[in-house]
Amino acid sequence: MQLQRRARRTRRGPTLLSLCAALAATASIAMPRTSEAAEIVLSGSGTFNPPKAEQLAALRADLPFSKSDLASGNWSFSARYEDSTPDAESDPHAGRYAGAIRGFRLVIGSTTLDLPADQAAIVISDGGSGFSHRESIRVEARASTPSGLLRLSWIQVNQQAKDADLRGPAGVLPSDALPPAAMVASMATASPFDRFLELRIDAATGGSRPLLYLSSSKLSVKAGPATAP
Questions:
Q1: Which pick of 38, 48, 176, 200 has the fewest CB atoms within 10 Å?
Q2: Whole-angstrom Cα distance, residue 132 to residue 64?
Q3: Are 49 and 197 in contact (CB under 8 A)?
Q4: Is pTM beyond 0.90 here?
Q5: Which helix (H) or strand (E) holds 107?
């Protein structure tokens, strides 16, 4: 704890020490306070059910992952985000933290993809968007690839009966603010299958069926302060 000393006043006015203290106090008020902001690293790894042999054979050659990558059934992701990013969503029970993500990486098999940070966001719903019975945390990113649009999301959903109102302290999330890192990694849900990593690639020409779709709840996910730049 720093000790503050008061300078004595004389008949000639404030001393040099008191003037310096006043200026320092004024400067401390004017400067933005950023000490509470922190960078968080969210990471997860696990397995998915690989496509069947006939499905692998039918996949397009320009997908960002090889058939051996997909046959491995192994994947991981990591996202670095800033936990003081302001909410860009007007809904009082839904928050969209665009620009929060500083980096987003996906690894499948032996292939690594770094997804564009400017196409990533954290989306929080505390019973917002007209679904008061549903809370969710989504950490998502998208990227254009030669085969089409890739979307990756770490999704956690707490959904109750339709007549339930989870807005505010009634549910798991007290608001649409960014929750603590531990909750971004593992939010309480009605079912363990309501926490999952999802990958979807859609053709640029459109179509109702994705070129590739993977989803799995078999992941170990953690989050904590970033220790490296």
A1: 38
A2: 38
A3: no
A4: no
A5: strand 101-108
Token pair 């008949």 is at which residue? 11
**E-state strands within 109-174:** 111-115, 120-126, 134-145, 148-159
DSSP 168: G
Helix (H, G, I), strand (E, B) or coil at 97: strand
Per-residue pLDDT tens digits for 36-94? 779 999 999 999 999 999 999 999 999 999 999 999 999 999 999 999 999 999 999 99
Tokens linked to 15? 């001393």
Can you read off the two tokens belonging to residue 198?
């999802």
- Give the percent of the chain with pLDDT over 70: 83
Largest CA distance in the chain: 94
Q: Determine contact, residues 39/64, Cβ cutoff 8 Å.
A: no
Contact 225, 39 (CB under 8 A): yes
In 3D space, the residue among 80, 83, 160 whose CA is nearest the CA of residue 120 turns out to be 80
Question: To which residue do tokens 């004595």 refer?
Answer: 8
Residue type present at position 144? S
**Is 144 strand, coil or helix?**
strand
> In the sheet where 212-216 sits, what is the strand order?
94-98, 120-126, 134-145, 148-159, 195-203, 212-216
The helix/strand/coil state of 213 is strand
